[in-house]
Amino acid sequence: MLLDSFLKITYPFMQGGMAQVATGRFAAAVSNAGALGIVAGGGRTSEQLREEIHTVRSLTDKPFGVNVMLMAPDIEKIAAVVAEEQVPVITTGAGDPAAYIEAWKNAKSLVIPVAPSVSLARRMEKYGADAVIAEGTESGGHVGELTTMALVPQAVDALRIPVIAAGGVASGRQLCAIFALGAIGVQMGTALLVSEECPIHENYKQLLLDARDTSTTVTGRSLGAPVRIIKNKMARSYLKLEKGDINRDALEELTLGSLRRAVFDGDKDRGSFMAGQVAGQLTRIEPLADIFSRLMQEYQQVKEGLPAL
Ligand code: TUI
């Protein structure tokens, strides 16, 4: 069964968590375009999140999800709000959600954690996850070490629950490849940042359109919180500081609010423009519906061409 049947949606696509970016309105637009929209928990208080959940419900009658960013300071409250609101799907990122899975299952949600390794994926299966998202280091934002190419087939072989791939998918060719690896569908973030509906600053979109294959880098490895962002002045200063004697305070000063500076202010020098390695492929701003139908069309063409090989 592919992700579209699993989630009762049109396309085998779900949206990434996208802290600060994915409002209730954006999630509803993704769901209305036929994929699974996800409201970001990251960067919001529990009550702000509750409001965004009410917004998505008011704008779509299609399934949607909420992403719980497990490094959030008020994680207990956020986990409780998500259970109270009985959302159809819960995804998690940047940590181990085992402690919350039972409460979320009792609220009848489908629980789909991100796992950056087979060992965490196995643990999620043991604790009752309905599926896992195997996310490769090609992704934007908080990343693990393994590539999508290496992680997805190993997770598929190790698990009985379905595996959804993430990281490095923004075309029909890549979609075809992840099906070949055994995933049932894909979670996408970067590809959707350049949608007309995405509520980020236009400078953010322009940086994505200007990006090439080598335009992203990973900051924060030395602090155990690796984050993939577009190379800019702030990324270079951060990496320079990391190379020397690590001064946590200086690094925190540099990153505090930097995601907000990217998303809302479009501050090209001081913003943290999270993006995956596929940024180099993005060439235009389009409606979500066109992104999804183009991917499916390209996927069908590629698949039909494969027997010739
Ligand atoms: O979570 C993401 N991507 C994110 S979260 C985010 S917000 C943020 N901002 C600043 C610093 C840190 C985060 C931006 N992008 N993707 C899912 C993901 N989860 N990638 C890797 C992981 C992960 C890592 C370790 C999941 C579990 C994990 O487990 C460690 C443990 O506790 O066992």
What does this protein look like?
By secondary structure, the protein is α/β, with parallel strands linked by helices. The protein is about 45% helix and about 15% strand. The chain contains 14 helices and 11 strands. The chain has helices at about 5, 25-30, 45-60, 75-85, 100-105, 120-125, 150-160, 170-180, 190-195, 200-210, 235-245, 250-255, 260-265, 290-305, and strands at about 15, 35-40, 65-70, 90-95, 110-115, 130-135, 140, 165, 185-190, 215-220, 225-230. The strands form 2 sheets. Strands 1-9-8-6-5-4-3-2 form an 8-stranded parallel β-sheet. A hairpin with a 7-residue loop joins strand 10 and strand 11 (about 225-230). Helix 2 runs parallel beside helix 3 and helix 4 (about 75-85) packs parallel to helix 5. The longest helix has 18 residues, at about 290-305. The chain is globular. The relative contact order is 0.13. The model has no long low-confidence stretch (mean pLDDT about 95).
Query: For the terminal residues, how far apart are their CA atoms?
Result: 26 Å
Mean pLDDT: 96
Give Rg in angstroms: 18 Å
Strand order of the largest sheet: 1-9-8-6-5-4-3-2
Number of β-strand runs: 11
Largest sheet: 8 strands, parallel
Percent of residues in helical segments?
Answer: 40-55%
Name the structural class.
Answer: alpha/beta
The geometry reads as: globular
Q: List bound small molecules.
A: ligand TUI
Strand content: 5-15%
Alpha plus pi helix count: 14
Q: Provide the low-confidence segments as ranges.
A: none
Instruction: List the secondary-structure elements in sequence, H or E.
Output: HEHEHEHEHEHEEHEHEHHEEHHHH
